[in-house]
Each structure stands twice: as C-alpha cells, then as structure tokens.
Amino acid sequence: MKKYGEILSACPLFAGMTEEATEAVLTTLGARVWRKKKEAWILPEGSPARYLGIVLQGVAQVVRTDYYGNRSILTCLHPGDIFGEAFACAGMETLPVAVMAVTETEVMMLDASRLSSLENGALTWNLLRVMAQKNMLLNRKIEITNKRTTREKLMAFLMMQAQEKHASAFEISFDRQALADYLGVDRSGLSAEIGKLNKAGVLQCRKNWFELL
Questions:
Q1: Residue 119, Cβ neighbours under 10 Å: how many?
Q2: Which residues make beta-bridge pairs with 106?
Q3: Would you say the C-alpha torsion 49, 32, 8, 172 has a positive or negative sign?
Q4: Would you tell me the crossing angle of helices 150-165 and 176-183 to the nearest 10 degrees?
Q5: Can you say whether the dihedral through the CA atoms of 155, 156, 160, 161 is positive or negative?
Q6: Angle between the 176-183 and 187-199 helix axes, to the nearest 10 degrees?
Q7: Is the pTM higher than 0.85?
Q8: Which residues lie closer than 8 Å to 13 by C-beta, 6 or more apart?
Q9: Could you write out the three-class secondary structure of the chain?
Q10: Backbone phi and psi for residue 78, each to the nearest 5 degrees, phi listed first
C-alpha cells in the first residue's frame, strides 16, 4: 500500500494520522485495490452496503437511477475522495445508489464491518467530519435542484462553483450530459439555456469551462 501513500495522506479519512497508524487501519479493515475500466460499475445499485471506498486514480460518479431509467448524478469523485461510508455506517443491507468509473479508475475498498474493532479516535473523528461535509454537499444539491427552471438551476450551480473556486472563470467536473443529469434537466434544454445566456452576455462557455461575466 506504500505506493498510494501520497494520495492516502491527502485523504480526509486519515487526516492527522501517522503513516504507521494509517497502515494499521488499512490492515485491520482488509484494504483491497480494485481496478475498473471506463464506464464500469465499481459498486452497482443493490450491492451489499459493506464497503467504504477511496478513489486512488481516475474519476468516478455516484449515480441514482429511478424506476423509469432516468439517471441522476449525486456527486463526482476524484483521487482522495471517499464513497459508500454513509450507507455502510448506517447499517443498510444494500446500496440505494451506484458508483461508476467515468475513466479507468483505481479504488481502495475497506471493510466497514470491521470498524468496531478499531480503537483509533482520530479515524472516528475524521469519518464523522467527512460524513458531515457530505451532508452539506447534499443540502447544496437540494438547494440547486429545488429551483424551478433550468436557467435558475444552472445559474445557482455556476455561482456556487465560482464562490467555491474564488474565481469568475473555472472548469467543472461534468460534461454536458453529466451536468444535465446532475441538475435533473433535459440536455437539449440545458444547451439552449447556455446558448441564451452566452448570447445575453451573462456567461461564456467552452465545453466544461465557464466564465461568469
């Protein structure tokens, strides 16, 4: 696991922990590395909610698909990000969401059922902090998707991105279809709104690059 030391040291789950303490946690939780091809499922919906994962390389998405097959992207995951922890710690039997590799991806899977055997207070605190931060992100998504129109949803998302990155020009993690899935809107309608806002001088856009004017 030493080859992943740099990524793990930056992972919020291991914040403030020594390399030795991190290694001990990984051993106790039976850490395993999975390699997934582009667009492969890392954790399909309905799979056992037993693991929490850490993205080591590549990009992944947490997605939910409704009864009619409509896909909604809940969040985008990059190296160092954690997934599955809320469902594993909640004691759920199966996952109500899925995790998909957007690119060729490596993830480290930890057996959450072994967490009770740990005596590491720092890890417990870090896990609680990660879950609290995820809850804040979920509330932010709800605030965006509760807007009534596609334009309002798009502008709320872009303004939050600008605030987060402290810049009026920035790149987002989604392509056009993924952005539509995240906002819960039709792709053609989203593209039309972007075109109108561009023409009105509200923003400029090139692929996943935006600038608020």
A1: 8
A2: 35, 57
A3: negative
A4: 110
A5: negative
A6: 100
A7: no
A8: 54, 82, 123, 126, 127, 130
A9: CHHHHHHHHHCHHHCCCCHHHHHHHHHHCCCEEEEECCCCEEECCCCECCEEEEEEECCEEEEEECCCCCEEEEEEECCCCEECHHHHHCCCCECCCEEEECCCEEEEEEEHHHHHHCCCHHHHHHHHHHHHHHHHHHHHHHHHHCCCCHHHHHHHHHHHHHHHHCCCEEECCCCHHHHHHHHCCCHHHHHHHHHHHHHCCCEEEECCEEEEC
A10: -125, 170
The pLDDT tens digits of the residues spanning 154-212 come to 999 998 889 888 899 999 888 888 899 888 888 999 999 999 999 999 999 988 899 99
CB neighbourhood size of 206 (10 A): 9
Q: Which residues contact 37 (CB under 8 A, 6 or more apart)?
A: 101, 104
